[in-house]
Amino acid sequence: MRLTRFSAEALALVAALAMAPSLAFAQSTLRVVNHSDLKVIDPIWTTAYIVRNHGYMIYDTLFALDADLQIQPQMVETWSVADDKVTYTFRLREGLEWHDGQAVTSADVIPSIKRWAARDTVGQLMLTVVQDMTAVDDRTFRIVLKEPSGLLMMGLAKPSGTPFMMPKRVAESDPFTQLSDTVGSGPFVFKKDEWKPGEKAVYVRNSKYRPRSEPPSGLAGGKIAKVDRVEWVAMSDQLTVVNALISGEIDMIEQPQHDLFPVLAKDPNVELVNLDPRGLQYIFRFNVLHKPFDNPKIRQALLYAFNQEDFLKAVIGDPRYYKTCKALFMCDTPFASTKGWEDKLESNIDKAKALLKEGGYDGTPVVLLGTTDLYVLNNLAPVAKALMERAGLKVDMQRMDWATLVARRTRKEPPPVGWSALLVAGSWVDLANPLVNTQVNASCDGAWFGWACDMELVELRNAFARAPDLAKQKEIAEAIQLRVVDYPTHIFLGQYSVPIARRKSVTGNIESAITVFWNIEKKGR
Predict the structure, then answer these.
(1) Torsion sign across C-alpha atoms 42, 44, 48, 53
(2) Which residues contact 477 (CB under 8 A, 6 or more apart)?
(3) Per-residue pLDDT at 333 exceeds 80
(4) Which of 169, 206, 305, 458 has the most CB within a 10 Å radius?
């Protein structure tokens, strides 16, 4: 068959189009509604989960935890520990590049570790055992400890409050000032020019990223970006979000509202997938600086006034997605124990009233902060208010959006400017042992909001960090759990999980406590 000039040119055009991935229609875009809008872009400056997840998009880590919670190398190619058990030598993988094309070197690693450690509680503890950190050559760096300790590797592989690696010029910036330079070396590049808080955040595939050869496992292994573009779309109304997923306007919801699961289940093109069965824990946090919760006896009263079931039913509702658990470090974790808590959290109102009387409660109102715009938290404050009032406390419940609450919780002044208590949720990766669990950090001004201040807890936490083996660590973890009965820093209110909702055209989500976007594929555009 003879080709005409027209048909030959047409075939050439078709061939050219097939080989041009940069054309718009050839790009795959994943549109996601996350649990929160991205308003801050420095994952060292804040512990907010949405900013941490942003960090995993654009940065990489030296080490990571796999699905079995084992530490695996990530940016590191090889590492060794000398016979003295204090000298660690690390060698970076070859060919690592920042998004601007510059090579990743040891000179970037050392200041990145220091910037992270200046803000993170585990990092701060880690630095107390570090004697020296030096860059040996472009790909090799050495860390020497003062004494043998597991803190170094635990810190470098910390999954939340993560030591992300940054270019030297960025890492040397003030850790207490938000950074604006978003150059990383991770599997996606942040499109800062398209970022519109309250509307969307955009990431594109890093074509120069060199993933590890191992299959992905947890936060470790090969991080292969299989979509060209990821858009985090901001939507606050949950019914609107669900309708957007059903219509195909978006592809995935990170945390769909539990009472809307039946709506999602009816759509044949949508599925619910639980990527994190361990889930999260609800937390009632005391402010110990001011009345009435400056008195441990009055805090202890709430250990008896509260029960977990009321809180879990009020928000989650479906028992398939929640469970009561009287373990401070959460159930299904290495340090799970109910010791000392067997008779707590049963709404023993008579016992609570007796403790309030013993503590000399004088009627000072509890200023309780609650949210209005996060469905996983919104119904918690009314339950806490009702149970406290049953016990005999006066409660001033003040509800606000999450951003306002985050700002308010930093205030140390007495109420009404300050606050008495608030409710949050934390992932198991941030709660499963005494080092990562900021709720048991009782270092006064250095503690989490609420400023728990108890030297016995501080000493126990330090002892845990120095413990030589798992058996000793478990013994110390139980001692901490018992101390929290005598000096309550917070109350744990049960566990829950939130499956993602996705269209069936989306596959490959990694099972992890942290939502990541590598390995995800999408059929169609």
Answers:
(1) positive
(2) 329, 335, 337, 433, 434, 464
(3) yes
(4) 305
Q: Which amino acid is at 313?
A: K
User: Average pLDDT in the 96-101 region?
Assistant: 97
In this prediction, residue 428 carries a pLDDT of 92
The continuous run of DSSP H or E covering 521 comes out as strand 521-522
Q: Which of 212, 254, 220 is nearest to 67 (CA)?
A: 220
Q: What is the CA radius of gyration of the chain?
A: 25
Angle, helices 380-391 vs 349-358, to 10°: value is: 70
Mapping DSSP to helix (H, G, I), strand (E, B) and coil, where does residue 191 land? coil
DSSP summary character for residue 425? E
End-to-end CA distance of the chain: 36
The pTM score is 0.83
Q: Which residues contact 472 (CB under 8 A, 6 or more apart)?
A: none
Reported in sequence order, the residue ranges of 373-489 that DSSP labels E, i.e. its strands, are: 395-400, 421-427
Task: Report pLDDT digits (tens) over 481-521.
Answer: 999 999 999 999 999 999 999 999 999 999 999 999 999 99
Give the model's confidence band at 53: pLDDT under 50 very low, under 70 low, under 90 confident, else very high: very high
CA distance 292 to 122: 30
CB 258 within 8 A of CB 318: yes
Could you tell me where the beta strands, DSSP code E, fall in 428-499? 490-496
219, pLDDT greater than 50: yes
Contacting residues for 364 by C-beta, under 8 A, at least 6 apart = 291, 292, 394
Show Cβ contacts of residue 429 under 8 Å, excluding neighbours closer than 6 positions.
159, 160, 436, 513, 514
HSE-up of residue 463 (Cα within 13 Å, Cβ side): 16
Q: Is the pLDDT of residue 10 over 50?
A: no
